[in-house]
Amino acid sequence: MTEFTLHTAQTAPEASKPLLAKSEAAFGMIPSLHAVMAESPQMLEGYQQLHKLFQETHFNPEELTVVWQTINVENNCHYCVPAHTGIAKSMKVDDAIIDALRDGTPLPDAKLEALRDFTLKIVRDRGVVDDAAVQAFLDAGFTRRSVLDVILGYAQKIMSNYTNHFAETPVDKPFQKFAWDPAATKAA
Predict the structure, then answer these.
(1) Full pLDDT tens readout for the chain, 188 residues
(2) Is residue 91, in this structure, part of any structural domain at all?
(3) Which of 2, 88, 111, 163 could form a disulfide with 65 if both were Cys (CB 3.0 to 4.6 A apart)?
(4) CA 155 to chain centre
(5) Are residues 74 and 124 in the same domain?
(6) By residue range, what is the domain housing residue 83?
(7) Distance between CA 172 and CA 16 in Å, rounded?
């Protein structure tokens, strides 16, 4: 395994230092994911920008969480599932939605389930989604813009999920209480 450095404000490449300061200001800490990404200032900056842009889409907190967690669970991301559980709780997302996403069980809302289904189609079919699936998504109350915004969310999650797979990023202390076992999800 290749080891990755968890950078601090002192050890990070010069171009990453202001980016880590931005992370610390936003989260009250430097998340381990950002500490790993700091090795590449462009990666960290790109991730921060995609995160900001995805939060500025028309999706509400529940819908943002559905996209993020659907991808995190599908990609078996040991770091992002607990982190986004904490983020969802801070955004006041209903625990029934959070638990259903983590456990792979039906969501309590048909529109959110349609969003999860469509997000899974994008991930599993590598963006080659058939017309019937797109139409079902549109029929559920989403728009063509929503299609593109899901892709934006996926771009952000590819950066984090794949980084965490390579780096085996340690889960930050505030999120450790939301630890997630992918094997338990597959058994559900």
Answers:
(1) 579 999 999 999 999 999 999 999 999 999 999 999 999 999 999 999 999 999 999 999 999 999 999 999 999 999 999 999 999 999 999 999 999 999 999 999 999 999 999 999 999 999 999 999 999 999 999 999 999 999 999 999 999 999 999 999 999 999 999 999 877 665 54
(2) yes
(3) 88
(4) 9
(5) yes
(6) 59-162+174-183
(7) 20
